[in-house]
Amino acid sequence: MPQLNPNPWLFTLLITWLAFTLIYQPKTLSYLQTNNNTYTHKCLNTNSWNWPWT
């Protein structure tokens, strides 16, 4: 059963995960977030809606 032999793909899997964790992840995490969550929502209108079909 050749699909149980880890020799062809285990080394490729390990190298890929090392590249993701050591090279790509710090580069992508170093970018600034573009969504600032400093906006506070204040509800000014607290009246209920007057639906025409009710």
UniProtKB/TrEMBL annotation:
<keyword id="KW-0812">Transmembrane</keyword>
<dbReference type="InterPro" id="IPR001421">
    <property type="entry name" value="ATP8_metazoa"/>
</dbReference>
<comment type="similarity">
    <text>Belongs to the ATPase protein 8 family.</text>
</comment>
<feature type="transmembrane region" description="Helical">
    <location>
        <begin position="6"/>
        <end position="24"/>
    </location>
</feature>
<dbReference type="GO" id="GO:0045259">
    <property type="term" value="C:proton-transporting ATP synthase complex"/>
</dbReference>
<keyword id="KW-0138">CF(0)</keyword>
<keyword id="KW-0472">Membrane</keyword>
<dbReference type="GO" id="GO:0015078">
    <property type="term" value="F:proton transmembrane transporter activity"/>
</dbReference>
<dbReference type="Pfam" id="PF00895">
    <property type="entry name" value="ATP-synt_8"/>
</dbReference>
<keyword id="KW-0406">Ion transport</keyword>
<keyword id="KW-0496">Mitochondrion</keyword>
<keyword id="KW-1133">Transmembrane helix</keyword>
<keyword id="KW-0375">Hydrogen ion transport</keyword>
<dbReference type="GO" id="GO:0015986">
    <property type="term" value="P:proton motive force-driven ATP synthesis"/>
</dbReference>
<protein>
    <recommendedName>
        <fullName>ATP synthase complex subunit 8</fullName>
    </recommendedName>
</protein>
<keyword id="KW-0066">ATP synthesis</keyword>
<keyword id="KW-0813">Transport</keyword>
<dbReference type="GO" id="GO:0031966">
    <property type="term" value="C:mitochondrial membrane"/>
</dbReference>
<dbReference type="InterPro" id="IPR050635">
    <property type="entry name" value="ATPase_protein_8"/>
</dbReference>
